[in-house]
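Title: Comparing notes on inverse folding

I've been comparing how different people in this forum approach sequence design from structure. To keep things fair, I'm posting one structure and asking everyone to reply with a full sequence. Here's the target:
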């Protein structure tokens, strides 16, 4: 029997509202928003980005997960993996008895028709969905609408004979799910490029530029990031660009233009118009958060910037990239990263390694801090950071 699937919640939104508010909301952050996104405490001034934290898709996914646990108190409830990239939120769900199939000791093979499985905001691959449907699990689908929009475009590319070039991380849950949409269409193919450097290699091959990688070299470079049977000589004839929804929008746009130019160089303008497609598939919440930090950096003189969110959160990492180009920036996974005024534990934007940095906090005088958080970071963690900064800035 096909799985029963809930796609619009489980009619328990009101019943879980109190728990969600207690676990994730903040009166202080609401107060700061009402005060023109500015908070002053002694020598400390905090400027809060005007768009930050939980987006609609994340809020909805967490809401549905809480509803699922309440709806099925006597049944095993699983998530295929992290519901969002925030350890605080995921650990809250574990504490409620939600089990993660990505955790050690859990097994997809042990699932039964009596189990409830929550599909995360990133979505799941077509093969994973088929597998769950075959078992007959009850499914709670929290896949973000912005992700579904990308899937629609990628499927259309495949149906029209275009290879999807996806700007994203080939190992990321969302990108794997998106890529699977391309290959479910007979003859569909995809290639995932991480950044300008990888895009440049492919574009050099397309345009036949001097020094371009050989077919063999390209296949080796993208052996983990291309569809089975991908042949660059054949499957780069027609290209449709898409992206992981949480990538840096300016980079995705630039990569799209690189592919447009490469196909133009190979085929000429008239033919290129028929062999290249692109749609803006950065989600609106990601774009809004990126625009908000750009505005804050332009409007305020800041001594430093703090970005809060999981180290594996793509949208958070990209916020940190934007800020680091303008002001000293510290990407912390959670408030515990603020070890003390003498040490901060953070992810370095350039090396991507976690560092412990000393002498990061101004010891005296006024200090202006910019603050934002990724789309998977709840307001209560942002409040905890503000309270810690107040303590650091207080007179000795």
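Reply #1:
Here's my take.
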């Amino acid at each position: 029997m096909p799985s029963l699937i809930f796609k619009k919640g489980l009619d328990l939104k009101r019943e879980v509202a109190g728990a969600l508010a207690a676990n994730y909301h903040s009166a202080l952050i609401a107060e700061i928003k009402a005060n023109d996104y500015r908070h002053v405490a002694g020598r400390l001034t905090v400027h809060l980005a005007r768009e930050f934290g939980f987006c609609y898709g994340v809020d909805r996914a967490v809401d549905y997960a809480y509803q699922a646990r309440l709806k099925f108190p006597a049944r095993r409830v699983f998530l295929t993996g992290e519901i969002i990239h925030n350890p605080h939120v995921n650990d809250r769900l574990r504490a409620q008895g939600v089990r993660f199939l990505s955790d050690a000791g859990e097994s997809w093979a042990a699932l039964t028709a009596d189990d409830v499985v929550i599909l995360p905001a990133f979505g799941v691959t077509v093969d994973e969905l088929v597998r769950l449907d075959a078992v007959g699990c009850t499914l709670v689908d929290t896949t973000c609408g912005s992700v579904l929009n990308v899937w629609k475009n990628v499927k259309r590319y495949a149906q029209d004979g275009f290879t999807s070039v996806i700007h994203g991380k080939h190992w990321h849950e969302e990108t794997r799910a998106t890529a699977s949409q391309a290959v479910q269409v007979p003859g569909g193919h995809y290639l995932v490029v991480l950044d300008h450097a990888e895009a440049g290699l492919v574009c050099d091959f397309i345009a036949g530029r001097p020094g371009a990688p050989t077919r063999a070299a390209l296949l080796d470079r993208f052996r983990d990031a291309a569809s089975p049977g991908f042949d660059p000589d054949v499957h780069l004839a027609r290209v449709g660009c898409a992206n992981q929804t949480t990538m840096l929008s300016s980079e995705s746009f630039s990569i799209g233009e690189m592919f447009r130019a490469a196909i133009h160089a190979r085929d000429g303008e008239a033919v290129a118009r028929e062999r290249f497609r692109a749609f803006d598939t950065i989600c609106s919440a990601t774009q809004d958060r990126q625009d908000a930090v750009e505005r804050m950096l332009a409007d305020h003189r800041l001594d430093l910037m703090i970005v809060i969110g999981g180290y594996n959160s793509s949208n958070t990492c990209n916020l940190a990239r934007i800020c680091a180009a303008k002001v000293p920036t510290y990407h912390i996974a959670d408030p515990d990263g603020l070890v003390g005024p003498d040490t901060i534990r953070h992810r370095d934007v350039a090396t991507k390694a976690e560092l412990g940095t000393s002498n990061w906090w101004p010891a005296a005088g006024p200090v202006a801090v910019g603050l934002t958080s990724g789309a998977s970071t709840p307001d209560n963690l942002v409040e905890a950071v503000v309270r810690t900064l107040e303590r650091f800035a207080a007179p000795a």
